[in-house]
Fold each of these.
Amino acid sequence: MAPKNTIASDGWLSIGPLLGSDVQRRDNDRMTSRGSGRVPSRWWAVAALAALVLVAAGLVQVVAGSRREALNLLVGTVLSVAVMAATAWWAFTTRRVWKRWLNIAIAVLAVANVVLGFLEFGFRQAAGATAIVAGSLTYAATARRALRPAPLWTAPDSSPAAGLGSPSGGPGSGGRGSATPGGLGADGDQGRPWLVVNPRSGDGKAGRVGLVEAARARGLRVHVLERGEDLVALAREAVAAGAGAVGVAGGDGSLGLVAKVAVEADVPFVCIPSGTRNHFAGDLGLDRADPLAALDAFTGAERRIDVGMVGERMFLNNVSLGAYADMVADPRYRAAKLATAHAVLPASLRGEHDLLQVDLRDADGREHPDVLVLLVAANSYELNGVRERLDGGVLQVSALRARTGAALAGLATRALARGGRVAGGSGWAQWTTTALRVSAPLAQLPAGIDGEAATLATPLEFRVLPQALRVLVPPALGPPAPRVRLQSWATVRRLVRIVDLSKPS
């Protein structure tokens, strides 16, 4: 849990005296700004609740008129998903080309069976199906609008930015912060933000968009990384020279190295997404397709986020051990990720390689003596691979042992039955903690740290450093919106409360 201090639970600096008089807290736990001119949330909430009534009416009509058809459709869908998972696994792991194509064909037929089943059901129950679809789409759109947070920061003034976001990062500075921490100093390079650019990341994305020129035009000190240069040493030299902030334009693997220097020196950190995947930038809320827009972070507001440590190595996303780490360590991985995955992983998934032997205990004290893949992440990933929070103060540990088509099909079926959540069992375990120790018979283990190959000495000591990293984000980014769980009764109760609290007194 994040400490109860001036840092809010969503990672943005807390409301109260830091925000000034232009921002107030609403009873429905959302931020609003006076004079924002927003359409009242009450009407969106009313529309969302009306859409739910339409969905309920459609369901009643379908259930009353379909008799056993709805149950047959549900059972058929679950079975088809299990077949798709198993055949996809076998298609990926088999050595024989004809078996691969056979399994692909079976998977396609399973998909077609689901699609045709829903189409047939929809035609037979046209009125109810139309009501359900229309109501669901309307509910999804209007509920998100009703629960969407209003902008936290007031609009920045139009004068040129004097410097970096201040430690308070509040709207009193127009989203710009003070000039003290990292503004463009009048005394040479003192206080000037520093940015290192990896020109090879993302197949040369930085060069294609003119990132170096754009950064220098903003007055940043820019260093173009050459092969063989020590990124950590460069960052430390920049801090010693008085850099008010340090930034990285590259892939996820470069970020943790410079972030550690930023934490040690207590200077702000900036992420410019110019790599291939840029998972951390996506979780932070940046537009991964527009590295130039991320340069606005140097005059933006500040967030505090967690970082993970394994020994003395820092990670911002995750550390992987086992089959995935073996794939990352392959020399072919950087140039051809998919081809390398198909060349390396199937042998492990066919059971030709032993599981990784570890001494690992979960939060309940259960032992996990071997794993196919072990993933330790800074904060929790959702099923879609995205982290809702970067300041939860926990490590998420995921241990996968299933490595056969049948085992994977079982996991997929259980996940479908639980609404996307995979229940723990013999093939899978997941829990959260603040510290973790992983021992192994081997003196060293190959690992993937934020997607970069590394070798770590055992035992591995993982820990989380809550809100240790000061991250600057563009002023236009705003606070991260909490995920709206549309299927939750809590969401419905929030909508009812919005309608009730918004009534004129």
Note: Residues 323 and 348 are 7 Å apart (CA to CA).
Amino acid sequence: MVTTRTRKAPLFERFMAYRRFSAGLAFTRDGEHILFVSNISGQFNLWRVPVEGGWPDQLTAFTDETVRLVTVSPRDGTIALCADRDGDEFHQIYLIDPDGGWPEQITDAPEVQHFVGADAFSPDGTQLAYAANARTPTDMEVWIRDLDTGEDRAVFGAGKYAFPAAWSPDGSKLLALDLRHNSDSSLHLVDLETGETPELTPHEDDAIFFPGPWAADGSGFYLATDAGREFRGIAFYDLTSRSYEWVETPDADIEELSSSDDGRVLAWLVNEDGWDRLHLRDLVDDRDLPDPDLLPGSRPHLTGFQPPVALSADGAHAAVILSGPRRPPDVWVVETDTGHARAVTNSRLGGIGEDELVDAELISYPTFDDRDIPAWLYRPRDVNEKLPVVLSIHGGPEAQERAIYNPLYQYLLSRGIAVLATNIRGSTGYGKTYQRLVQRDWGGGDLKDWDHAVRWLHEQDWVDGERIGVFGGSYGGFAVLSCVTRLPDYWAAAVDIFGPYNLITFAKAVPPTWKRMMKRFVGDPEEDADLLRERSPMTYVENVRTPLLVIQGAKDPRVVKPESDQLVEKLQELGRTVDYVVFEDEGHGFTKRQNELKAFRLSAEWLERYLVTNFR
């Protein structure tokens, strides 16, 4: 007698068994290893792996601190990194001896944010440029530390939200970014000898200017800008003429721009329909290098920060971190002369193969103003009945849903639940006009886009319109709360992860360096109080009848815990179905693996209970 066993769907933990990465990515000085930041240990630590691949060496062993960014000295290979504790975003700077030293903390200001970028070290390695709001909490300024004496001095950024960029090849000057808001920034040239800081890119209309690498001869530098264009292109800025000329003008955004230390190879990423495409150019021979043989992929992010494209000092290798819907993120190394690419990490740990996972389909649906809203659709395979769907809304909102590996999505799909992940108005990657539609209009046109997403779902013959859920974090959490309060008839389940509930209190409590941007971003909490009150989920909370799971980090500096406290207290007072989970050692996102596992398991169970189990 032959017996057969029904194959069980994989446990949630198997989908979560993968490695995540933060924004740290760089080559060692000799180009033989790559530095990356991953949660292999359960926390985001710094690791080093040979360019040929192999088991990585762990360079930090933090348990409470999260490594965010990393850079390498061209002089001796010293590593600088910034890390914060329990997600509080008060990053401190550490140095690591490349020959095996332990991290040495060189800043100790627990209520000051510090940032180091990829070009933080001066060309001779004696100075370190970093950003900090050390003098005035509302001002992010550019600082220089003399690594021999330990002395620090502010060189630019009083009254601004500023960050250092690349040093000139002779080390006498430094580019600096003045970030005014999400649609406007400008570049300054800091002369470290005279103290002069002229603005190089003055402009009247809003425009983004992001600094790139210098030419090897110091005659100028590359930059990315959307000035006069819908999308960001690459230009070269000539210091003598004080003007720039276009180099690349794709009908898509340039997202990263880097060059090798010897100035031979220029690398950039183009956002093509949400995929990151790597391009390489030999600047000496003025020729495009072979297209890398990379699979379609996109960069992951940790709290909004994405890893850069890295180049070895001699330009022989490039490195990127890419993920796909069925592929967890990995570090890929590209031989720039041939385009040959290989993964040097292996992040798939749960034993679930690509053929067991579901791919994403790029679709669009019409909305109220005749625009088409792009979205990624994930549908369970081999299911011949009407399905429940989760509408997933990304954070930002000026960010983008990418088709990267999402363990929650794949788990839901394995349980017969489809996912529609939207890029509603305000999302990046579709031109600056589309991105700006959400500014000062939270809970306006975006709400109509979610309404039309559900209408589109109702029109699909495979969708069970009685079983639609909504999920999101940060701005996506605000979206969830807006949906269940202002479109209350649509939803069978909802999950809100650190979403703003009261836009007035939210705007008042953001980090001090953000306050100058809130009027343009959301609205001024004093001048625009009526608008913000009218758009706040708080105003419509009595409409809620959807079972709601609320998740919050106690140390969240962006959407503070009282936002969720207000919400849950009111829902409990009204007798609504609500569960509230607070992580005492997390901020805006999850940095510790055990917390991430718990938060997303709870989310999955909540959605499965109210979209599947309760309908059986």
Note: Residues 215 and 221 are 5 Å apart (CA to CA).
Amino acid sequence: MNEGPATSASEPGDTPLWRPSAERAELAQLTAFRRFAAAHVERELPDYAALHRWSIEAPNEFWGAIWDFCGVIGERGERVLVDGERMPGARWFPEARLNFAENLLGHPGSSLALIYRDERGLRRSWSWRALRDEVTSVAAGLRSVGVGPGDRVAGFLPNLPEAMIAMLASASLGAIWSSCSPDFGVRGVLDRFGQIEPRVLFCADGYAYGGKTYPSLERVASLLPELPSVERCVVVPNLIDPTHPDAELERAISAAGLVGALPWRRFADAQPTGPTTFEQLPFDHPLYILYSSGTTGPPKCIVHGAGGTLLQHLKEQRLHVDLRPDDRFFYFTTTGWMMWNWLASGLACSATLVLYDGSPFEPRPEALFDLAQDEAIAVFGTSAKFLDAASKAGLRPRETHRLPALRTVLSTGSPLVAEGFDYVYDAIHPDVCLSSISGGTDIVSCFVCGDPTGAVWRGECQVPGLGMAVDVFDEQGKPLRGEAGELVCTRPFPSMPIGFWGDSDGRRYRAAYFERFPGVWCHGDFASLTEHGGMVILGRSDATLNPGGVRIGTAEIYRQVERVDEVVESLVIGQQWESDVRVVLFVKLREGRMLDEELRARIRRQVRAEATPRHVPAVIVQVADIPRTKSGKIVELAVRDIVHGRPVRNREALANPEALELFRDLEELRPGS
């Protein structure tokens, strides 16, 4: 057994919330890798700090060891890193040949490969053999349309098993997969897929969310004329029972006017199939196109390579998560968030993926904890927002559910505040490794990760990822200690994007990450390093507040405001005011509550007492809703633009764009108010 949680400290730094037992640390794959690496390079690597230091100082040795330890299927070649001093411009494994899908399907576990559940109660599952056979069939269908290396295949799909299968089939051929969730409107889909010109589009007949159903085929019918590159549209049954014959789905396709579209089963079964084949491709062959949120303009189409994605995910999942063969691995995500792509790579670790589609609170608030219990989930991935919502709803699965298989809880999407750590250990499970991880779509991976052999400190991400030269810089590009600054990475890493789609000279790519500090990746997060070797993420640096010239991370304010019981959610911006910037806080309150002067004063006292006087909002305004992206992130920049009378582009990136109008021309924010 693990030691379990230590006494919770009032602030990070005093006592860890959790530390693994000696037995758990000894059995961790991270420990095995540390010994493997030490033996191969004949170097003492006694602890994580030494291992991380070596991974940065000797990237050729480290990434070569990751390839070997994780059993990557492919030809490695002799060289690991060429032009390693160039940032960007370094080349990884230039002689290697591999296939991403082969690595995900080539290490079958002894249990199931996929389990699917949705909010309506449907459960489906695939064995490893059945999954491989289905991938082979869909790949044959794609090949019959002429799809090959470099072609784009798009998915406008819920988080269905068919989305995973279509991705694997595309990757097996060397095609590039790109997906977005079906809650996007027509304009949002065209802003993405219109740039990359896919040859094949997979879609569903609709999706369910929050107890309601949303048909999709009419939207698809309006999309296709604007996507002339699409030669074949394939429709997956979802609202129509997937076990029913295709006739019902064909009638729905015809009624929507989707001329030439094929039901999934007909497409998959149309071609004779032989043995599964995997195109052997260079390490940096394009695998995925992901999209920036696009709330400040058209979304950037970020191209990720197969080898870098595979190697980073193997490192993170096997070493930092300690994901093991046959573990049930769950992450609450949609196909439009990079965590879907990250989850998919769990197959390369021989894990069983647990997919869920629908609302996390449907058919009842405990839905995801029911799932964790019913499917014996070992690694439970979610967002800081979900944990906050579960806490405020009073959910205590530690008392209502049996979760003996649960070892690890992962949280990302936004900073997990200290109280979120308390909630996990008090209300979910006392003996889990809680890993608040942070990275992004830009790198399809993480800069800061978990450490299953180390302590969990309240409010902190545990460690910088192995092989990631993470630092914090001030505005002059100097390293900072004990203060907040820009999160940077000072050396190349394999999952850096190949580039942006359509950016032939690389100018937009370099401007996005390397313009601020030449030769250094600037990620756009505001962060600080901790005395324990971890990191605290304080929010996006472009949303950082600057009252009186002092930079303040928004997460520092959210943490305090959302401790006030009446506050369900909040958003903070800096408003230009009398030649300075003032802090403006918007709050969404519990149903039936109104913001009065007593509550305003209480919020200000909380912020002043637990943060600093500079964090105290000058203005507090009640709003009915907080705008979010479709992946659940609040959009401070879009609200800031609305408040300042500037246009907000690409509203299609928002889950609730109508909420922006709640912030327009507010009396409380006018001059003289």
Note: Residues 1-10 have pLDDT under 50 and may be disordered.
